[in-house]
Amino acid sequence: MPATYVKEDTITDAEAVKKAYKPSHPGLFEIVYAEGSFNSQLVASKDFNKDEVICVIEGTTPGPKKYTTVQVSRDLHIELNSDLVFLNHSCDPSVSLDTDKMQLIAAKDIKKGDPLTFFYPSSEWEMDQPFPCWCGAQKCSKSIQGAKFLSTETMDRYFVASHIAELLKERGPDAAVAPSQK
């Protein structure tokens, strides 16, 4: 696995990028490249059963907080250095990113070709680059800024990393900060 993994934000020739692509986890998942900005996605290369460990997360490196990193403790972010950097967000996620065990786990039954997505606030207290959510889930959060900005009721619907659970407990049950108070 490379020391750093470059995620191309804007793709103008998806076919050329695909030809140069070398999967980090062959047989488990692959990147579907799409032209434009932030349009590529990670999809399953096979079926996975709910609660199945899809892969162990290894080869990570510490890095400064930015949109490609994952928060793994109160003050540490890591670069995934693999295809996992293409896990997109969903308010109805197909996977859980367990940063305590460093595992990617199926949150529901997944079929070959299904997008692999996780709920970003499950590991992120405050996002480096908040964004509007268009996932279309029935209980979509609409704005993804991090767990800090969501109600305890919302966060209770998801698997959350232990550092997020601790921060939510310290914050208290009804102390979600409104986006305008940021």
From TrEMBL:
Residues 27-121 form the SET domain. SUPFAM superfamilies: SET domain. It comes from the Eukaryota. Keywords: Methyltransferase, S-adenosyl-L-methionine, Transferase. One of its GO terms (molecular function) is methyltransferase activity. Residues 129-145 form the Post-SET domain. GO terms for biological process: methylation. This is SET domain-containing protein.
